[in-house]
Amino acid sequence: VQLQASGGGLVQAGGSLRLSCAASGRTFSAVMGWFRQVPGKEREFVASCNWRGDSTYYADSVKGRFTISREYAKNTAFLQMNSLKPEDTAVYYCAASKNPRDWGARAEYDLWGQGTQVTVSS
Questions:
Q1: Rg of the Cα trace of the chain?
Q2: What is the 3-state secondary structure of 13-67?
Q3: Three-state secondary-structure class, residue 87
Q4: Which residues contact 40 (CB under 8 A, 6 or more apart)?
Q5: Who wins on pLDDT, 89 or 99?
Q6: pLDDT tens track for 60-98
Q7: Spatial separation of the C-alpha atoms in residues 100 and 31, rounded to whole Å
Q8: Cα–Cα distance list, 116 to 28, 29, 92 (Å)
Q9: Secondary structure (DSSP) of 96-107
């Protein structure tokens, strides 16, 4: 299985973007997560959800602005980002884990997609 992230781009502060993460190969049940990273900093957790998409977990910095969802039949996860701020600028990565103990822990995810750049201008 491979993960392919897409949907990044340049947007003004207050705008919205929707990221997609498509999993190729067989359908799998896993926790899907989104992380982000800026140069010189650790990759940080953004959001995660279970395979049905009905159990979600968010970083405090994005609660109320970002929404993670999943279309299990299409092997695709999404990250809807609203009210974007310049500090949301980063490379965003999707990841998957079969059974993470901590949904927000980067080390719990063993499958990663390539990043997609999100730039929010002020």
A1: 13
A2: CCCCEEEEEEEECCCCCCEEEEEEECCCCCCEEEEEECCCCCCEEECCCCCCCEE
A3: helix
A4: none
A5: 89
A6: 999 999 999 998 888 899 999 999 999 999 999 999 998
A7: 7
A8: 23, 23, 5
A9: EESS-SSTT-GG
Pairing of strands 116-121, 9-12: parallel
Cα–Cα distance measured from residue 109 to residue 20, given in angstroms and rounded to the nearest whole number: 18
CA distances from 95 to 13, 23, 84, 91, 121 (A): 26, 10, 22, 13, 26
Whether residue 25 contacts residue 2, with contact meaning beta carbons closer than 8 Å, is answered with yes
> Which tokens go with 87?
């500090």
pLDDT digits (tens, 9 = 90+) for 33-55: 999 999 999 999 999 999 888 99
Q: How far apart are CA 111 and CA 35, in angstroms?
A: 12
Amino acid letter, residue 31? V
CB atoms within 10 A of CB 30: 19
In angstroms, rounded to a whole number, what is the distance separating the alpha carbons of residues 73 and 86?
Answer: 34
